[in-house]
Amino acid sequence: MSTATYDDNAVPVDDEGFFTEPDRWTEAMAEQIACEAGIEELTERHWTVIRFMREQYAAKGTGPTVRVLGKTSGVTVKELYQLFPKGPAKTAAKIAGIPKPRGCI
Amino acid sequence: MDKRIVILGGGTAGTLTANRLQRTYGERECRITVVDQDDDHVYQPGLLFVPFGLAQPQHLVRSRPRQLHAAIDYKMAQIERVDLDARAVHLSGGIRLAYDVLVVATGAALLPEETEGLTGPGWGENVFTFYDLPGAVGLHGALEQFQGGRVVVNVADLPLKCPVAPLEFAFLADWYFQRRGIRDKVQLTYVTPLDAAFTKPVAAEALGGLLAEKGIELVTEFTLGQVDGTGGRLVSYDEREVPFDLAVVVPLHGGAAYVGRSQGLGDELGFIPVDPHSLQHPEHPDVFAIGDAAGLLASKAGSVAHFEGETLVHNIGRFLAGQPLDATFDGHTNCFVETGYHKALLIDFNYDTEPLPGHFPAAVGLPLLKESHANHLGKLAFEWLYWHSLLPGRELPGIGSAMPERGKNHVHA
Ligand SMILES: Cc1cc2nc3c(=O)[nH]c(=O)nc-3n(C[C@H](O)[C@H](O)[C@H](O)COP(=O)(O)OP(=O)(O)OC[C@H]3O[C@@H](n4cnc5c(N)ncnc54)[C@H](O)[C@@H]3O)c2cc1C
Fold this sequence. Notes:
The complex is a heterodimer.
Chain A: E1 2-6, E2 9-13, H1 27-36, H2 44-60, H3 66-72, H4 77-83, H5 88-95
Antiparallel strand pairs in A: 1-2
Chain B: E1 3-8, H1 12-29, E2 30-36, E3 40-42, E4 61-63, E5 73-76, E6 79-83, E7 88-91, E8 95-98, E9 101-104, E10 108-110, E11 127-128, H2 133-145, E12 149-155, H3 165-180, E13 186-191, H4 201-213, E14 217-219, E15 224-228, E16 233-236, E17 241-243, E18 246-250, E19 253-255, H5 257-260, E20 287-289, H6 302-320, E21 333-340, E22 343-349, E23 358-360, E24 366-368, H7 373-390
The structure holds flavin-adenine dinucleotide (FAD).
Flavin-adenine dinucleotide binds next to helix 1, strand 2 and helix 6 of chain B.
């Protein structure tokens, strides 16, 4: 387990950089995490997804998959890939400060 | 006690649950009704072998009601909707079934039409799935005609039933083309949305190693956006392309359509949210789900349905007696992975323990995560056990619901 520093705060993250304590996340940290993930500016559409990720995590204990995001977040899978080109579920989870979504097996 | 238990779905999970309930609680204590839409129970693990001519389609199908204990009522009808408040199920033909306990066992549906182009030009010609009987038969014809080129095996997205079956297909394809003497003319590619050959690190390494050994190219993190049958291309949402002459696609899976029409029953994909240990619906204590229909972080496999059955039947008894549920399911999954050349490997895991090397079920036993002829024989023996032991709801010799720890080597990937 390592730490990362966002908005002058050291937060615990896993080996891949996902938050392990989502309560430590603040909105101010999001821009910086996004930048690291290669997204220069967070638009309102990005924020729709980021907020949805956090709600889902709070309700279900895991972030949604891309397919569930596409069905329920109000943003289509196609647009999700435009917003988060390197894989929406993982990138949005990272920016939203929640653990890596647990896929099914 | 004269309670009504309605079981939706007469596949693997519904059949074994009904038979176990009948044996445990008998005719005097409850009346059991099973609903399914047709009479054909297909042995789904056999679908893997049909494309290669290693299983005959007609041998995989048996009558559904004949797999049920004679005292169980079988209704052949379409399920239209569940009314959770009224505790009733509406079936085609205006039939209404009231229940005290509802067991949802309607499995996973294949949704090929949800992927752009998948059922368009080329479907059934150079684009196939082997996940249902007509698809597997069609693919057999196409493979027989195939003289060389690019064969792509693709999983559209998760969840899918029997997550090892597409890998098995790739391994068997390698063997099939070797046997036909044209392996050097065939380029085999395995395309997955995962970041490795399999989800869990230790197994992913072992299975990824086997792909490499067999000269099967691996393409990862590819979420299927479009199938272009005419142009022979799979296109991902992030606009990468994989060319093919023959595509074998495992389509998106969802729950049965009626789940979406039943207010409060399922999740966004049509699977039933249930407690991962008790299998009870969180908001409707009289509703349970088992098998592929359950929205659990466990594999969708017949073996899982078998292990869940023990928990479920015990908990239904407790529920009907007004007692707290006490049986827990640990996520136990057990799969033989056929690798061709009369060999298979075996994986055994649960919610907490990933597939590990070692032996099953104890230090002396079948090798785990390693190819062997004994495992291949195990895979073949499973068919007999399926009809004669698993469906009747009997214990499988030596294989209990709880995952065995003895014999596992805890290593790190
Ligand atoms: C190619 C392939 C290979 C596999 N290999 C293995 C293996 O080696 N080992 C293993 O353990 N598992 C394997 N599986 C998985 C296994 O077959 C399934 O996990 C298992 O069948 C699940 O049982 P189930 O009862 O939940 O669903 P099913 O057996 O699919 O049954 C669901 C039933 O519900 C009925 N139904 C659905 N909707 C309605 C409706 N609206 N009205 C009425 N009836 C309805 C259907 O007709 C069906 O009979 C394989 C699957 C495939 C496709």
